[in-house]
Design brief:
15-stranded parallel β-sheet; FBD; LRR_FXL15/At3g58940/PEG3-like; single chain; F-box_AtFBL13-like; alpha/beta; F-box domain
Length: 477
Amino acid sequence: MAMDSFRDSNSINNLPDEILGKILSLLPTNVAATTSILSKRWRNLLTQIDSLYFDDAMVVYPNEEEALSGSDRFCDFVDKTFALLSNSHMKKFSLRHVPRLDHYDAYHRWISTAMEQERGLLELHLHADPRCYFVEIERELFTSNTLVKLTLSGEYSLEVKRVFFPALKSLSLLSVSTLNYDNYCCLLDGCPALEVLYIRDAGHLDSPCCGAFVKSSSIKRLVVFVNLPYSKEHHKVSCFEAPSLVYLDYSSFVFGNYQSVDLESLVEARLNLRLWESYNNYGSSDDDGDDYSDYIVHHYYGDVTNLVAGITNITTLHLSPDSLEAIYFLCKSMPVFNNLLNLYIESNKEKGWQVMPLLLKSCPNLHTLVFKGLVHKVTNRCGDLCACIPKKQRVIVREQEEVCCLLTCQVKVLEISEYRGSFQELKQVRHFLGKLECLETVKVGVVADTANRNDFLRAILLTLPRLSSKCNNIQFI
C-alpha cells in the first residue's frame, strides 16, 4: 500500500499541465500526438504543445512502392495533428519532406496556418529533400511580426513581391539552389533587425547566389560555406557589404574578384580559401642547384587582395592550410593588421607556410600565436619563420643577412596543439624559442597517443634555449 502511494505521488500525471506540455514539445510530433489516446486529460494536454516537427520519414508506408510514389498518409497525419492542436500556442514549426506535386496546396496551407498563429510564430524551419521538384512559396507579401528564426533548406524557394520580418534575428539559407538573386535580395532587405546569417551553398551545380553576395547593414554574425567545385565559371565576383558585422566564418573556392568589401566593424574572422588549381611542387625544397624549377611562375584563378584588405580591423584571425596558400598566391599586396592580437594557424603536411613571414611582419602588435600542428610542407619560400629551410636557401639567407621575421615579432604567448614530439616539430619549437624575443608563455598540447610521454616531451622542451628571459615556463595543456 505504501509503495502504491509512493508511486502515485511520483507519477508523471501529477506534474502540472505546463510542465507536461513542455515535455510533449520535446518529443517527435508523431509520438506526442499518440499520447492523446491515454486519457481525456492527455488529449487536452496537446494544446500545451508549442513546438511541432513534421518529417515524412515519420510515416510508415505499407510497401516501398507507396513510399517512393507518395501517398496521402503524411498529409493526413499533419492535417489531423493540426486539427488536434487548433487551440495550441505554436512557437516553433519545422517541416521536412520530399516535395510532391500533388501536395503543394497542403504545404502552403500548413505554412500559412503556422505563420498566422494568433499569438505569433517564433521559429519556422522548412526543408525539402532534393528530388525532381522544388517548393516555391508564392505570396504578394511574406511577413510576420513575431518570427525571430527562419530556415529555408534544400528545394525551398521564394517568389514574392515583398518580404517584411521586423523581428527576425536569425536566417539560415541551406543549399537553396532554386532561390534566385532578386528574391534573395528581397529577403535580406525585408529583415531590418537581422543579426545572424548562415549560408550554405553546396551539393548542386548552380551558381553560388547566396554565398557570393551579402549586403546587410544589420547582421553581426555571418557564416558562409560554399563548396561548388564544378562551378568555377560562376565564381567571378563576390561582394560583402556588412558594416555592422563583428564575426565572419567564410569557406569557399576563391572568386575572380572580391569587388566590394565593407567590414569595418569586424573583430574576428575565420577564413578557409581554396585554390581551384593545385600548385603541385611549386616552391618545394630541393638541393639540386636548379633554381628554375623552384621559382617557376604559375598563374592561378582568383584575387583575394580586396578581401584581405577588408578585414584589417580584426583582432582575431583564423587561417586554414588552404588559406595560407590562397593568400600567398592571390593577394597582390599584404596590408598591415595593426589591431591583430590573436593569430590561429592550422597546418597540414601537404600545405606550405610560404605566406607566414610576410604575414607576421604585417602584424606589429600580435600578442598570441597559435598553431594547430607544426608539420607542414617544406618549401624554399617559408623563409626564416621555418626551421626547415633547405641548405641552398640557408646560404642565400646568410648572404642577404636579413633580420628574421621572428626577431621583430611581439608575440608573448605561443600555443601549439597536436604536438607529437617528432624531430621536425622539435626543430621548429627550438627555432621559435630561439627567435621570439618577447615570448613569455608557451603552451603545448600533445596528441592523445603520446600523452603517456608528457614528462619526457616536457623535459626535452625545457632544455631548449630561449632568447626571451621572461619565458620561464612551458605548460602542457
